[in-house]
Recover the amino acids of this structure.
């Protein structure tokens, strides 16, 4: 990782070293800054790598007599990048996801204030060595600020989109659409129209470059805004490199580029937030209908289930009176009717708990070891797996800590995921040994359960709509509610349910281990 970072940083630093301000290494575009901040956000302990790389690059390209000044300024700049990264990590997480207007505003504030801090550290350190000269000291501040702002606003979301597993499938799905390539073509056409004009007119018509970014954001949300702004940035750099621009003009163009990137990001997150709200509304309406259905089922099934338990108990009493040669068969009958009573009780509990959940999101939390729940689900599905010639395996950590959860509701989630996995594995038996594996382990304060099958897997374009309650079921007679209900249950436990693209089906849900501590 260190070697890869150094090589990529040096490459970006070399490519972007255009139109430096006289007496300094301040340039209007610094994509390597986004790379450094992204690495520090993911792993703050890599500060030594970032600082060493920046100092080394500064020493190599420093003007005669300014090597120490440039290296010292680079080290101080890495301190500023670390501050930006820690702020992003604190407010948006190790892999920041800018998907709402609030997170977008937080991101822009951190980036804007952080870039100002970086300028103070970098230019201030150079000032101690009288580089830049005192007559250009104040001019260096806004130019250095613009260089970092453009990099962090436009390029940092691109790095995050590539590093974030849920964002990568969204990007691939977008790239497979014809409309995205129309957006790209519109961006290239707008860039040609703008940069073919005389320099003084380019500022008047720069607004044309906002159109493809707005189109990408409106159609594809935050992902579309991120990549369309990055494309416009690349086209701007190509135009600057292929024509005779004075440095001041380049900095002014990048000021407009910073405004374009921020506008596109805000528009994209607004569109994405609206789509999330619409999906949540549809899900709530569908789940509310499911709640009414669950209540009706609970009312209608209560008497038949009670009758089943009564008949099972009566069969046990009758079997107990048999003697002689039929005693062995009587014992088998008692065992079967006992299982019948147990399953009738379980069915009643499931219907009752689901009814309570849908009515008021009720959960009866108890300190529970999830291991026996997994074992119970495996046992219940063993005969079905054998009949379908699917190997059912368990790969859980035997030393898992207990969690506060509603055992009946979480068992519903497990049964649903395992049932879906068995169906998927059975359908793909012609592609090798069919198997389903349930794993569970503790990761970073979360209990993570995974259900992985050898089926065809999930395509990247399916992931955004996989848990949509309006998504039709692929099973004959299915209602398409299983995954939506499972996600609602897990989220009521303050957890998360998600899927990842293949090979094979890969479903995960997490429950916070901190929940167990909070109830002690």
């Amino acid at each position: 990782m260190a070697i890869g970072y150094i090589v990529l940083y040096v490459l970006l630093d070399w490519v972007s070293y255009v139109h430096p301000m006289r007496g300094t290494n301040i340039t209007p575009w610094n994509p390597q800054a986004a790379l450094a901040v992204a690495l520090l956000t993911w792993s703050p302990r890599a500060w030594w790598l970032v600082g060493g790389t920046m100092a080394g690059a500064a020493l190599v390209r420093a003007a005669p007599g300014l090597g120490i000044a440039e290296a010292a300024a680079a080290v101080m700049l890495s301190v500023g990048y670390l501050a930006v990264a820690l702020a992003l990590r604190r407010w948006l997480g190790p892999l920041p996801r800018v998907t709402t207007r609030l997170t977008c505003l937080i991101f822009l504030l951190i980036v804007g204030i952080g870039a100002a801090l970086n300028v103070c550290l970098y230019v201030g350190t150079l000032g101690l060595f009288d580089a830049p000269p005192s007559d250009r000291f104040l001019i260096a501040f806004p130019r250095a600020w613009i260089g970092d702002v453009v990099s962090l606003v436009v390029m940092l979301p691109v790095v995050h989109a590539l590093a974030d597993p849920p964002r990568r499938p969204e990007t691939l799905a977008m790239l497979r659409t014809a409309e995205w390539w129309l957006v790209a073509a519109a961006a290239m056409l707008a860039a040609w129209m703008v940069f073919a004009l005389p320099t003084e007119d380019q500022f008047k018509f720069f607004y044309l470059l906002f159109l493809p970014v707005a189109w990408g954001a409106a159609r594809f949300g935050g992902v579309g805004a991120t990549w369309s702004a990055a494309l416009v940035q690349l086209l701007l750099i190509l135009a600057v490199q292929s024509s005779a621009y004075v440095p001041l003009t380049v900095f002014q163009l990048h000021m407009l580029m910073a405004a374009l990137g921020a506008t596109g990001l805000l528009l994209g997150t607004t569109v994405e937030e609206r789509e999330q709200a619409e999906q949540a509304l549809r899900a709530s309406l569908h789940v509310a209908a499911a709640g009414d259905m669950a209540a009706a089922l609970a009312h209608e099934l209560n008497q038949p289930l009670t009758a089943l338990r009564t008949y099972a108990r009566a069969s046990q009493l009758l079997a107990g009176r048999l003697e002689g040669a039929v005693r062995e068969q009587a014992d088998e009958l008692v065992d079967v009717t006992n299982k019948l009573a147990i399953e009738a009780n379980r069915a009643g509990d499931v219907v009752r708990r689901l009814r309570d959940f849908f009515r008021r999101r009720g959960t009866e939390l108890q300190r529970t070891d999830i291991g026996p729940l997994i074992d119970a689900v495996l046992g219940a599905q063993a005969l079905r797996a054998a009949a379908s010639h699917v190997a059912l395996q368990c790969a859980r950590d035997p030393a898992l800590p207990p969690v506060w959860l509603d055992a009946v509701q979480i068992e519903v989630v497990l049964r649903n995921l395992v049932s879906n996995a068995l169906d998927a594995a059975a359908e793909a038996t012609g592609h090798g040994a069919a198997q389903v594996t349930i794993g569970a382990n503790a990761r970073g304060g979360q209990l993570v359960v995974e259900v992985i099958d050898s089926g065809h897997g999930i395509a990247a374009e399916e992931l955004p709509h996989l848990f949509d309650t309006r998504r039709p079921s692929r099973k004959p007679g299915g209602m398409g509610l299983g995954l939506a209900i499972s996600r609602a249950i897990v989220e009521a436990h303050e957890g998360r349910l998600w899927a990842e693209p293949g090979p094979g089906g890969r479903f995960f849900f997490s429950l916070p281990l901190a929940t167990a501590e909070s109830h002690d």
Notes: Residues 515-520 have pLDDT under 50 and may be disordered. The radius of gyration is 30 Å.
